[in-house]
Each structure stands twice: as C-alpha cells, then as structure tokens.
Amino acid sequence: MSDETKPAKVQKAQPVRGMQDFIGEQAARFEHVVGTFRDVSRRFGFRRVEVPVVEFTSVFARTLGETTDVVSKEMYTFEDRNGESLTLRPEFTAGICRAYISEGWQQFAPLKLVTHGPLFRYERPQKGRYRQFHQLDAEVIGSAEPAADVELIALADLLLKELGVGGVTLQLNTLGDAETRGKWREALVAHFSAHKDALSEESLRRLETNPLRILDTKEAQDRPLVDAAPSIDAYMSSEAGAFFESVQAGLQASGIAFQRAAQLVRGFDYYRHTAFEFVSDALGSQATVIGGGRYDGLIESMGGPHTPAVGWAGGIERLMMLCSEPAADALDVAVVPMGAAAELAANGLLAELRAAGLSAEQGWRGNMKKRMERAAKAGARFALILGDDEIASGGVSVKDMASGEQQAVSRDGLVSWLKARA
After folding, report:
1. Residue 152 in domain
2. What CATH number did the domain enclosing 337 receive?
3. What pLDDT band is residue 107 in, cutting at 50, 70 and 90?
C-alpha cells in the first residue's frame, strides 16, 4: 500500500498541553470570579472594553521589550497568509493602549476601563499557571492624579473582599518620576557592576538589559547584594515623594492596609510612581494574585501622545483557587409533565415562566418519581406538576420542595404567585 492510500492517523482526542476545560464546580468558580468582578467594577463606574485576541507582534515587542522572556520565549507568534507577524495576546494593557491610539479614544479621557478573557503564553504548565490562562484587567487612562492609583487599588481590594479571599497582603512601592528613576537606576547599575562575580547568570543578563529586575530575583546567591542595594528613597525628587505620600494617604483614608515593599519594581522605563501587588500566603511561589502600577510613558512609547495611565491585572485561575465556595445557582421551578398532552403544554408553560424572569427547566424522560428526584437534585424551589387533570382544570399542582406542601394554583395567577415567593 502506497503512502497516498494509507488511512490518515486519527488524532487522539485530548487537550493541547497547558490548556484546560471547565465544567461543574470549576465552571461555577470561574463565573463567580468574573461575575463578582463585573459587579464591583460597576460600583466604581468602570466601563467594559473589548480588544482583539490577536495583534501585530510589534504591539507586544515594543511594550514588553524584545529581550524579555515573554517576547523571546513565551509568545505564540505566527505569520498569516499575507506574511504579517501576528501574536496571540500575552497580556491586555498593550492592546488597550494600541486601541487608545488607533481608535482615537483620547477624546474620551480619562477612561476607566475593565475587561477579562483569555491570554496565551508558552511556558511550563503548573498549578495555577496555564498556556491559555484568563485574567481580569482594570485601567485608568488619561489621569495623572494619585487619586486614580488609589481608586484602582481600592477596586482590587474590594474585589478580594467580595470574593472572600483572605491571607492577602498589599505590597506597595514607588518607582518615582523619570528623574528619580534615572538616578536610582544609575546607582543600582554601579552597585551590581561592582559585584559581578557574585551575581547569578540571570542577574548578569538583567544587568545589561533590565537592571531594576535584579531586585526581584529568585536566586539565593543574589539576595545579599539585593539587600545591600541602594534604596530609591535616597534619590526621590520632591514631586515624586509628594505623589507617593498622596497615594499612601488615600489608601489610609480608604481603610486599606499596606506594607512598603522597597524592592518591588517594574523593569521598563515607561513605568512611573506607584507599583503594587496583592500577595497571598496560600499559593507558594505563585504568590501574586493581583499586580499593577502606573505606566505614564507607555502610550507615548507606542507613538501616541503623552498619556498618564495606571492599571492592574489579576489571574482568574489563581482567584478561583482562593475564593470562597460560590453559592449554587438556585432553580426557581422544575416543570414535571405527565402524559403526551402535558409534555406539549409544558413548552408554553416554560416559555411563560422564563419570559417572566424565572429560571425553569423540565426533565425529558422517566416516570414522575424520577422527574421529581431530578427536580430535587437540581435544587428547584418549586415543582410544577402538570397532567391531564391540571390541563382540564386550567391549573397547576405546585409542590414546595423544602416543606413538601402541595397546592393547586391557577395558570392565570401562577407567575404572580411564584414571583411573590421568589
């Protein structure tokens, strides 16, 4: 048999490594996190924004940096049929800033925006980390005031409280203004350059490309040098100091506790002032639940106008691991039809109930006992029993699934009767 006539090999049905499927409790937890985020962001007056899953590769290369691991090792990049280099988004901020420039959203500034959805990074899958993962994202674009930083942090703080996530500490730092950051960077380069022989290989690479990132090294051999590194406070301009004081005062007035984390950094030059992370004590090495900061220089670096901005992102999968058990979705009504005529009539009854805002479903097979068992398993508050007698009388037998009490209710008054008890 020639190769051309051999049957094609059947691909085993399995997910791509690092991808995941949700059903049952996991799906409920996912929706609980997203639903709570929607509710809390609404209370703060944030608006939903949508950006594409795919962008030109340059959008991320310019914003994340050509030398970062995300760009050099982790992005899903491919050429389309026109030879354009495209990338599945590894984060949200770059795409939102691209849209701010290309769609002329400057006219709407300041913008308070939220979004959520899938992101993609090619990295080693582990607990709480996937190649297709999901994030919540919040941004304030076009506001240079410290109050915007406080507002965003307050949004994250309330979200965690509403989700029932405990054991979380807010770590806070400042990266200063451009003048402060520049002087501090020079001092750090001088400090680490004088001790190159004691640095890890990764920190030596960062010394050349992104020296501030040495401060968040995970290598034990780097810790003594990092602990002895000069503090940004020694180089703080009066303006940068005042900004940081305003952020801290705003958090204190909001009742939000925080710890100063002098080694918390963001590596790129477009980051300014506030940097923060909500860190959990229950996730091991994957400790950061929500992280963000001010990126006043990013939109300008992408070719747009100078635009102050601040934002944060939080991993949905990590929040799913930490949040309290979501309440089960309660079913208002289970319709239990008995007989062919009742099966047909149930369609109209279900349509009427759902149009009135009640959740309703029916079992499609089995005797009455089986269907009532299914209603109980679904958590229905009421079971509506519909048979030939009920059709003839123009009513429905309604059983309270908690008390077991059963009574006849007319079809004309059924919706009002149910909604009064919902």
Report:
1. yes
2. 3.40.50.800
3. very high
Asked if 312 and 377 sit in the same domain, the reply is no
The answer to whether 266 is a known ligand-binding residue is: yes
- Of 322, 349, 378, the last residue of a domain is 322
Interval 355-378: pLDDT, tens: 999 999 998 888 889 989 888 888
What does the pLDDT look like over 319-352, one tens digit per residue?
Answer: 999 988 887 778 999 999 998 999 999 999 999 9
Return the biggest CA–CA distance within the chain. 94
Q: Is residue 41 part of a domain?
A: yes
Which residues are CB-neighbours of 284 under 8 A, at least 6 positions away?
127
121 is in an annotated binding site: yes
Tell me if 43 is assigned to some domain: yes
270 marked ligand binding residue? yes
Residue 250 φ/ψ, nearest 5 degrees: -65, -40
C-alpha of 263 from chain center: 25
Please give the structure tokens belonging to residue 397.
Answer: 């037998």
Helices 411-419 and 340-355 cross at an angle (nearest 10°) of 50
Sheet containing 85-88: give its strands across: 54-56, 85-88, 77-79
Residue 212 domain flag: no
Strand partners, 27: none
139 labeled part of a ligand binding site: yes
126 is in an annotated binding site: no
Indicate whether 172 and 86 sit together in one domain.
yes
Residue 15 per-residue DSSP state: P
Reading the block at residue 261, the tokens are 């984390």
| 394 and 300 within one domain | no
Question: Which of 258, 290, 322 corresponds to the end of one domain?
Answer: 322
The predicted model scores a pTM of: 0.87
Cβ-proximal residues to 288 (8 Å cutoff; 6+ apart), any chain: 277, 278, 279, 280
Same domain, 134 and 32: yes
Q: What's the total number of domains in the chain?
A: 2
Q: Is 271 annotated as a binding residue?
A: yes
The 3-class secondary structure across 17-81, one letter per residue, is CCCCCCCHHHHHHHHHHHHHHHHHHHHCCCEECCCCCEEEHHHHHHHHCCCCHHHHHHCCEEECC
Structural domain span for residue 73: 24-177+237-322
Model pLDDT for residues 35-57, shown as the tens digit of each residue: 999 999 999 999 999 999 999 99
